[in-house]
Amino acid sequence: MAAEYILAENNFQVMLCERGIRTFETATRSTLDISSILQAKETDSIVMVGDLEIGGKEIVFMAGPCAVENEEQLLVIARHVKASGAQILRGGAFKPRSSPYSFQGLELEGLKMLDTARQETGLKIVTEVLNPQEVEMVAAYTDILQVGARNMQNFSLLREVGRSGKPVMLKRGLAATLEEWLMAAEYILAENNFQVMLCERGIRTFETSTRSTLDISSIPQAKELSHLPVIADPCHSSGSWRLAAPLSRAAIAAGADGLLIEVHHKPAEALCDGPQSLTPENFDRLLETVAPVAAAVNRSVPGADARIKE
Ligand code: PEP
Ligand code: MN
Question: pTM, whole model, 2 decimals?
Fold first, then answer.
């Protein structure tokens, strides 16, 4: 609306400047007191998921629907994202929904569908576990356990995923400071599970034009303060598929080791998060447009050589 004041005087020669906004975030190196194993390793960690490196030179793509809806939906999407170059299939079988009346996920049936998709495509699987009692069951079907934003400080869940010994992706809480996020990761590491990656998925600020605000600064900060790989989630942070590609480029430029992207072959019919889900074609385009940015920061994306246009 401020820009509109200038335009209203018939001056259309206006550009906007994003200069960062005031949030609750206060963590800096000087305020952090992590006398912990987070700092015990001097070099960046690489999380190994089978033969796949997370935190190495190649950017890792985790792509798939918000929720597993049925076997056909999952397989169609899995085949597409595999063909695009994704290494990991995402999809929730247990969904943390704000409303108890929204679709809660297919639970064990959904886990079995993820397993079928893994066998058919060879993709690795990442899926969310909601509570400590279900860690063993979910761990039996997945390659990476996802701890969602709403559970970032569910300390008994953190300890249990730590004890599972499985790779864990810890999403940043909706209103968590960097320090709280790293301390939550510490709970998992404290169980001697070092296969941990962080996921910046946007935080709540006063801005309402996006679902959350992707905190780009947290990516280099988390990587500087810890040795853990950092994944960025431009879909949950923005709430809009249109913002996924530009935010992905920004995240890679800032040092992200991977991207979590929601993909659905029929976004308008998705049971969950349709507006932020990319069609397979848009996902393909996203990979194309991030490849030159990855190359500029000495990283690569799967199938990059074919993608970077001369
Ligand atoms: C998700 O990735 O499916 C999810 C629920 O995300 P978040 O926990 O970041 O809201
Ligand atoms: Mn979602």
Answer: 0.92
